[in-house]
Design a protein that fits this description.
This protein is of the alpha/beta class and 213 residues long. The protein has 9 helices and 8 strands. It is 47% helix and 17% strand. The structure holds BIS(adenosine)-5'-pentaphosphate (AP5).
Length: 213
């Protein structure tokens, strides 16, 4: 089965997805992580995708589809968590056609006010090696700029710069928000308050997801 986690940039999708991987044995498929891996590897897809990601824009669906299909096909585990897909109506329609073996059981929207999203993203720092996420005020690494987990270098994501955050939030409002109505009509949507502390959000999330596993 597929669980979709949706929400604006900075809503906490990645944070909650990692908890579901470790505590509920989900396989996480993050299209953002998969694209960043392609960029790092310098692949053709990565080069093309980077032109959009670095501006805060969505990567065209055709660049993403191959990656998504490969990730889903490689999922031996039957609990798949989609983090960051779908992000527009066309992708939601595509997912419907892909999911005969793995139906979407529930779509959870992490709802967070915009000022909190900006606070989270502007202070976020990420390890370039293992992807562990930090926040300069609320969750800094023990040694400045050094990852606690793997000693990799901790830096700001290029798309977390202020101007790009503004674009990403605009793109979320215009392109991704319509999928909420799409899944509401399909009776798959659940919404939770993502502005609470991480542990409280996880409790609300598992309160929903545990009914399906
Ligand atoms: P992606 O990597 O998916 O980025 P995003 O959706 O913008 O989401 P973020 O990773 O910024 O935030 P998040 O919700 O995961 O929050 P996090 O847990 O990190 O996509 C990047 C780009 O790739 C896109 O812009 C696009 O170009 C492309 N792309 C990806 N998928 C695509 C698709 N399907 N189609 C087309 N293009 C696509 O948390 C953020 C911060 O807040 C962290 O510092 C964290 O520690 C903190 N935090 C988390 N939860 C809490 C809490 N409860 N309280 C306080 N702080 C918290």
């Amino acid at each position: 089965m597929i669980v979709v986690l949706t929400g604006a940039p900075g809503a906490g999708k990645g944070t909650q997805a990692d908890l579901l991987v470790s505590k509920r044995m989900f396989k996480k498929i993050s299209t953002g992580d998969a694209l960043r891996n392609q960029v790092r590897a310098g692949s053709e897809i990565g080069k093309k995708a980077n032109g959009y990601m670095s501006k805060g824009l969505l990567v065209p669906d055709d660049l993403l589809l191959g990656i998504l299909k490969a990730e889903i096909a490689g999922a031996a585990n039957d609990r798949i968590l989609l983090d960051g897909y779908p992000r527009n109506i066309a992708q939601a329609e595509t997912l419907k056609t892909l999911n005969s073996d793995f139906p979407v059981r529930v779509v959870v929207h992490l709802d967070v006010p915009e000022d909190e999203l900006v606070r989270r993203l502007s202070g976020r720092r990420v390890c370039g090696e293992c992807g562990t996420s930090y926040h300069v005020d609320t969750n800094p690494p023990k040694v400045a700029n050094v990852c606690d987990r793997c000693t990799g270098k901790v830096t700001q994501r290029l798309d977390d710069e202020e101007e790009k955050v503004k674009v990403r939030l605009k793109v979320f409002n215009s392109e991704t928000k319509p999928i909420l109505d799409f899944y509401r009509n399909e009776k798959l949507l659940r919404e939770i308050n993502g502005a609470e502390a991480t542990e409280s959000v996880f409790k609300s999330l598992t309160g929903i997801i545990d009914n399906f596993i």
